[in-house]
C-alpha cells in the first residue's frame, strides 16, 4: 500500500459512515477517477487478506467506511506495524529513512542492508542514496562510499545527534505530537522503533519535571517537549555506547548544574564519570539556546532589547486599533517572553506549528490583517522572517489583551490548563473571563499540572473549584472540563452546564471582606512600598537634563545624552562607545516611537550603577528608522539586573508614547518642568 492509497483509506475511516463518490475522492486528492478506482481496488484486496472486507461498503457509485472509529484505528495500525512490506514508501519517505539509518549507525551499511529494510531494489536504493548524498553535502556532511564495506557517515557524535534532532523536526509536527505519537505516520513509527523512544520518554518527562521544580525553571510547553526529545536521543545513543567528545565551551554554570542534575536522575551511577562530564557539556550547550529555560527573576538584562522592540510593535497596534495596548503590563511581559522564545527558535532554524492557526485566521481575520501589516517592526528589528504559525501565536496574545479589556468580575475559582504554550493559555483564559462569571486563579501548562496534581491533590482541592483544560485529565480530584482554546459554541454550552453543576455543589462561603474595611497594609507601609519602586523621574536632576542642544548626527546625540552618566560615575567611557556600537550592530530598533530614542547597551560594557539622562535636541536628527524618524528626545539609560528596572522602563516608554506628554516635554522651559512632567505621567 503506497502513501496515497493509505491516505484515501485514512480519510474514509476518519469520516466513517459518510458516503463519497469516486468523483468526490478524485477532487479531494487531485487525481483522476481511474487512479481513485485503483486505490479502492487495492484497499479492497488488503481488507480481504485481513478478513475485514465488511468495513468498506459500496452502494452503486457511493463508497463509505462501514466500521467504527476504533476499527479504523485498528486497521491503520495493522498497516503501520506491518512495516515497509505492507506500506510502500515514496521516494521522499525512503530518503528520510536512509538518512536516519546513516545517522544512527556507526558501522558501514551495504546496499543489501538498505534493500532488506526498505523492501525495494538495489537500483532504487542506490538512486536514493545519491540524492541523500547530494542533500547532505549541501550541509557540509560527506557520505563515504566503500565498494567493499558500504556506506558510512564519518562524523562526530554530537553532530550526529543534532542531525537526528533536525531530521525529526523536518516532519513539521511539534515535539509533543511526535513523542505522543498520536498520528499514523510511517516515518514516526520507524524512528520510535529504532530509537526505542517509548522506553525513554516517560522517564525523561519525570526527570525533567523534577528538575524544573528544583531549579524553579520557567519553561514553555514547546521547550519542555523539545528538551524531552533531545534527552531521549541522548539516552538512545548512550545506551548503545555512543558518547560525545565535546570541546570545552564557555557555558554558564547554571546550565552545567541543571544538565548534571538531569543526567544524574536519568543515569544514576550506570555511566562512567568521564562520559557524564562530556554529556553534561553537550546538553548544557543545547539548553543555553533554549530562551525560555530561565530561572525566576534572572536574565533581565537580555530582555531590555526585546522589551523595547515589543513596545514599538504595541505602539503601532495602539495607533491602528485606536486602543491603548501600552498600559497592559501583562501583555508586555508575556509577549516579550514569547518574542524572545520565537527569536531563539528562528536563530536555531526550529519550526513551530500552531494547531489553532486555521480557526484563528477564520475567526480573527481583521486582527490578523492588522498584525500582518505591522509585523515588519518585529521582522526588521530582529532580523527574522515570520510565517503564519508564528504570527497567529502573536495574534493570540493581542486577542487575549482585547478580551482582558472587556473582562467582568469573576467568582468561581478556576485553574486553566493548556498543552500548547503560554500564548494559547492566556488566549483561552481571557476568552473565559470575558464570557463567564469565574475567577481564574492560575494559568499553567499541562505538564506542570500533571507533575503535581496527583502528588498533592489536597492542594488543588483547597485552591480551585474547577479545572478548564485543553487536554484530558483523567482521575483529577476536582471537576474538570476539556475544551478547544478557540471556544466553540459547543464548548460554551458545556462550560455553562459544568459551572452550574459545580456551583450547586460548592459549600456556602462566609463573607471575607467588609465594605469600607481598613486594609491590612497601613498607609505608612503603602507609602514605603511606593517609594521603593524605581521611577525615571527619580533618576533626573539638573545635571542630567540637557535642553535644546545642537548635534552633528545621531552618534553625537547618543554621546551627548550619555555624558552626564559618565560625569556622575554611573558608567565608564566604554559604555558610551557601546551605546553607539549597539545602534551600528543592531539598527535603530530603540527609536521605538516617533521622535524618541532610548539609547542603551549591554551593562557588561561599563555600567557602574543605575542611571538615566534626558536630552532634548534643538533640531531633530535622523537615526535611520523608517517610521519614527526624526528624533527629538534621546534618553540614555544605564540599567542593571532587576525586575524593578524593567518596570521603570515600562512606565518610561508609556510616558514617552503619550502625545500629550510629548508635547509638554517639547514646550517645557527648564529642568524642573521636565521632572514634573515625568512625575505626572508616571502616576497615570
From TrEMBL:
GO BP terms, alphabetized: phosphoenolpyruvate-dependent sugar phosphotransferase system; regulation of DNA-templated transcription
GO molecular function: protein-N(PI)-phosphohistidine-sugar phosphotransferase activity
InterPro entries: BglG_antiterminators, PRD, PRD_sf, PTrfase/Anion_transptr, PTS_EIIA_type-2_dom, PTS_EIIB-like_sf, PTS_EIIB_2, PTS_EIIB_2/3
Record domain PTS EIIB type-2: where: 412-507
Residue ranges occupied by any PTS EIIA type-2 domain in the UniProt entry: 538-681
Keywords of the record: Repeat, Transcription, Transcription regulation, Transferase
The PRD domain, residue ranges: 301-408
Listed Gene3D superfamilies: 3.40.50.2300, Mannitol-specific EII, Chain A, PRD domain
Presence of the UniProt keyword NADP in the record: no
Entry keyword annotation includes Repeat: yes
The protein's name in its UniProt record: PRD domain-containing protein
Amino acid at each position: 500500500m503506497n502513501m496515497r492509497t493509505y491516505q484515501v483509506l485514512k480519510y474514509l475511516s476518519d469520516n466513517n459512515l459518510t458516503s463519497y463518490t469516486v468523483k468526490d475522492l478524485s477532487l479531494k486528492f487531485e487525481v483522476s477517477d481511474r487512479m481513485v478506482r485503483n486505490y479502492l481496488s487495492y484497499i479492497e484486496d488488503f481488507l480481504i487478506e485481513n478478513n475485514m472486507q465488511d468495513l468498506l461498503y459500496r452502494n452503486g457509485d457511493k463508497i463509505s467506511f462501514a466500521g467504527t472509529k476504533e476499527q479504523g484505528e485498528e486497521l491503520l495500525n495493522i498497516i503501520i506495524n506491518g512495516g515497509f512490506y505492507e506500506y510502500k514508501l515514496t521516494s521522499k519517505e525512503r530518503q528520510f529513512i536512509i538518512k536516519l539509518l546513516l545517522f544512527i549507525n556507526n558501522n558501514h551499511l551495504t546496499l543489501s542492508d538498505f534493500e532488506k529494510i526498505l523492501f525495494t531494489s538495489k537500483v532504487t536504493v542506490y538512486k536514493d542514496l545519491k540524492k541523500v548524498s547530494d542533500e547532505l553535502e549541501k550541509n557540509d556532511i560527506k557520505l563515504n562510499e566503500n565498494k567493499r564495506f558500504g556506506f558510512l557517515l564519518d562524523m562526530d557524535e554530537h553532530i550526529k545527534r543534532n542531525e537526528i534532532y533536525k531530521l525529526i523536526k523536518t516532519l513539521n509536527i511539534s515535539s509533543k505530537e511526535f513523542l505522543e505519537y498520536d498520528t499514523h505516520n510511517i516515518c514516526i513509527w520507524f524512528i520510535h522503533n529504532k530509537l526505542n523512544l517509548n522506553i525513554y520518554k516517560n522517564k525523561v518527562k519525570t526527570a525533567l519535571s523534577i528538575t524544573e521544580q528544583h531549579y524553579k525553571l520557567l519553561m514553555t510547553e514547546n521547550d519542555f517537549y523539545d528538551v524531552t526529545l533531545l534527552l531521549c536521543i541522548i539516552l538512545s545513543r548512550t545506551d548503545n555506547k555512543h558518547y560525545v567528545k565535546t570541546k570545552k565551551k564557555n557555558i554558564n554554570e547554571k546550565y552545567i548544574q541543571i544538565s548534571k542534575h538531569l543526567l544524574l536522575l536519568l543515569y544514576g551511577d550506570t555511566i562512567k564519570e568521564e562520559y557524564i562530564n562530556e554529556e553534561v557539556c553537550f546538553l548544557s550547550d543545547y539548553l543555553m539556546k533554549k530562551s525560555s529555560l530561565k530561572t525566576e527573576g534572572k536574565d533581565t538584562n537580555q530582555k531590555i532589547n526585546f522589551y523595547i522592540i515589543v513596545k514599538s510593535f504595541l505602539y503601532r497596534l495602539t495607533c491602528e486599533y485606536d486602543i491603548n495596548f501600552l498600559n497592559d503590563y501583562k501583555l508586555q511581559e508575556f509577549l516579550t517572553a514569547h518574542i524572545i522564545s520565537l527569536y531563539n527558535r528562528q536563530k536555531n532554524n526550529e519550526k513551530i506549528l500552531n494547531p489553532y492557526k486555521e480557526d484563528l485566521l477564520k475567526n480573527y481575520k481583521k486582527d490578523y490583517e492588522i498584525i500582518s501589516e505591522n509585523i515588519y517592526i518585529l521582522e526588521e528589528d530582529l532580523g527574522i522572517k515570520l510565517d503564519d504559525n508564528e504570527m497567529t501565536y502573536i495574534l493570540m496574545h493581542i486577542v487575549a489583551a482585547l478580551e482582558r479589556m472587556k473582562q467582568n468580575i469573576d467568582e468561581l475559582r478556576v485553574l486553566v490548563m493548556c498543552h500548547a504554550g503560554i500564548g494559547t493559555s492566556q488566549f483561552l483564559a481571557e476568552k473565559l473571563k470575558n464570557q463567564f462569571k469565574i475567577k481564574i486563579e492560575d494559568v499553567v501548562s499541562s505538564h506542570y499540572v500533571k507533575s503535581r496534581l496527583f502528588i498533592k491533590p489536597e492542594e488543588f482541592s483547597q485552591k480551585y473549584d474547577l479545572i478548564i483544560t485543553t487536554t484530558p485529565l483523567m482521575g483529577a480530584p476536582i471537576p474538570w472540563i476539556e475544551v478547544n482554546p478557540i471556544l466553540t459554541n459547543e464548548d460554551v454550552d458545556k462550560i455553562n452546564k459544568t459551572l452550574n453543576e459545580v456551583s450547586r455543589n460548592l459549600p456556602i462561603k462566609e463573607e471575607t471582606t467588609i465594605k469600607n474595611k481598613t486594609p491590612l497594609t497601613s498607609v505608612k507601609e503603602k507609602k514605603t512600598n511606593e517609594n521603593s519602586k524605581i521611577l525615571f523621574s527619580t533618576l533626573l536632576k539638573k545635571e542630567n537634563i540637557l535642553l535644546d542642544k545642537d548635534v552633528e548626527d545621531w552618534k553625537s546625540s547618543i554621546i551627548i545624552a550619555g555624558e552626564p552618566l559618565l560625569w556622575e560615575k554611573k558608567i565608564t567611557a566604554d559604555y558610551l562607545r557601546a551605546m553607539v556600537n549597539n545602534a551600528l550592530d543592531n539598527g535603530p530598533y530603540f527609536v521605538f516611537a516617533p521622535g524618541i530614542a532610548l539609547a542603551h547597551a549591554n551593562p557588561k560594557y561599563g555600567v557602574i550603577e543605575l542611571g538615566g539622562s534626558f536630552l532634548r535636541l534643538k533640531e531633530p536628527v535622523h537615526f535611520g528608522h523608517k517610521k519614527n524618524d526624526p528624533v527629538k528626545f534621546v534618553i540614555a539609560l544605564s540599567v542593571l539586573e532587576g525586575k524593578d528596572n524593567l518596570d521603570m522602563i515600562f512606565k518610561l516608554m508609556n510616558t514617552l508614547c503619550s502625545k500629550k506628554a510629548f508635547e509638554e516635554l517639547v514646550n517645557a522651559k527648564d529642568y524642573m518642568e521636565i521632572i514634573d512632567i515625568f512625575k505626572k505621567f508616571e502616576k497615570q
